[in-house]
Amino acid sequence: MKATFVYISILLLSWSAFCQSHDSLATTLKYKIEKVTTDSARIGYKVELVEQMHRFDLDTSRVIINDVLKQIEGIQNTNPYYQKSKAKALNYLGIIENKQGNAEKALTTYLKALDLSKAINDSVTIGLTLHNLGMFYRRQRDYEKSKKYFKKAIKIKQKMTDVESLATSHHMLAVAYYANKQNDSSLIHILKVKALPCSKTRIAKANGSLAAIYYTNKEFDKSIAIYKENVGISKNIRDQSELSISYLNVAVLYNALKEYDKAMPYLDSAITVAKELKNKGLLLKQYYSRSNLNETRKEYQKALQDYKIYKVYNDSINDTEKVKRITALELNYKFEKEKQADQLRLENETGKKRLYLILFATALILGGIIFWLTRKNAKHRIALSKNKLKQEQLEKVKAELALLTREKELKKAVVDNSLRQEILSKTLGEIREIIQFENEQERTLALHSLSASLLSEKVTKKTTTDLQSYLNKVSLDFKVILDNQFPKLSEKEKELLCLMTLDLNATQISKLQNSTISAIKSSRSRIRKKIGVDSKVDIIEFIQKSKI
Question: For the chain, percent helix, then strand, then coil, each to nearest 5?
């Protein structure tokens, strides 16, 4: 019997939550709601009023919060302020549904609040909703899920400045650990609450949890002293839920000490407060406790009556079909989330494929354009190359023709010069013969021969002048090299070298220069010595390479 009674006490501790609901504050908020002229301010004040009232007047809080939600829906404004107010309102509506035993509605409301909070990326309402989901699953005795949500809430709240809210989540996590018989972990989080600069009310609640641990360790005197202190604090701050729990905790401890008459008044007070709150969860535990206490006192009729009431509340709250519906709601929520995630992934994949297709088509078009431009450029370069080649070939043909023309002219000049030499030699022979003539007439004829001889000499000089002029035209570049690089050479030697560039042999050059073949060869030997060229080296090639 005692073990069951203790377990009931531990479960009741899980229902404590922080709130200060002074009459003056509620009155001030009501006044502001009446006087304010803007929708946004009115909505904000109404949510604050519910935050103060929901622990001692659930029905009025429900009316106010439904009015807030209806007003926000009527505004149809996507302003983040209204969305945040809606998320907070949904949270308080979920708390009201949870406390009045409407578990399915509570879970649905919390999940809506969580989706909205995440959509607007508001850390405050996300932390609040995660905390409330932890409270919901703790009520369902699913302590693992409860602890998971409390830890998530703490992680978010640690980044914020609201110390009171952080202390509340640490405290509720401690309660969940305690309900799960993990007292060491519970004590860690209770001490974290006491270390935070939070309100005296929150410290008192942490002390209440500490008293429960004392109770478990059978340190009843310490435990009962803390619970009685909390009764006084709950009355002062008008926290009806905490007051009902504190009454019950004192009764549980007196029962453990076998002081049954002292326990009963506290248990009656706990039930009275819970009835005012219409809190089915508290009434369930308290009627069960009073039934056990009456049975211990051998007041069996009262014990049976209390047990029947307990059974009604138990059937209402712990309906198996309801649990199934809650599970179905949760699974449906997860399914919808997964479905949305899959849809989003599908849309992303479709978008990616469309983007890849566009990029591929663009790449093909650009590739085609580049290929066309490259090909056109290549054709243009080929055409230019062909034109250049044709031009070079034309220039080459012109150069060859010019060379052939010059070669013909030079050979003709050589032949003409040879003829002149023969004529001159013949004339000189005739002069010698004339000198020996004694007859006047013959001498006259000799004079005519002499005139012819002089005329031949004049022609020869003219031919020589024409040769120099010709060489200056066809070998000008070579002549410049000779003048600049080899100034020691005589003009006759330079003329010889210029004639050698025309591929003329010694015989041809001797006729042009009116000299002998041996004289030409001797001149070439002298030239090699002057410029320092070995006989094995082509003298013309050597001179051309010496160009600066």
Answer: 85, 0, 15
Q: How far is CA 243 from CA 31, 59, 213, in A?
A: 28, 19, 19
Give the model confidence (pLDDT) of 268-327 as tens digits.
999 999 998 888 888 998 899 999 989 998 899 999 999 999 999 888 776 655 555 665
Whose CA is closest to 449, among 437, 439, 434?
434
Q: Is the pTM above the cut of 0.85?
A: no
pLDDT of residue 14: 38
Closest CA to 27 of 41, 45, 9, 40: 45
Two structure tokens written together for 437: 């003539």
Report d(CA 391, CA 385) in Å as an integer: 10
Go through 269-306 and write b for each residue having 16 or more CB atoms within 10 A of its CB, e for each that does not.
bbbebbeebebbbbbbbbbbbbbbbbbbeeeeeebeeb
HEC profile for 187-200? HHHHHHHHHCCCCH
Lowest-pLDDT choice from 245-254, 358-367, 397-406? 397-406
Please tell me the distance from the alpha carbon of residue 338 to that of residue 519, in angstroms, as a whole number: 114
Q: Would you say 87 and 122 are in contact if contact means Cβ atoms under 8 Å apart?
A: yes
HSE-CB of 467 using CA atoms within 13 angstroms = 28
CB 462 within 8 A of CB 442: no
pLDDT score of 64: 92
DSSP per residue, 356-396: HHHHHHHHHHHHHHHHHHHHHHHHHHHHHHHHHHHHHHHHH
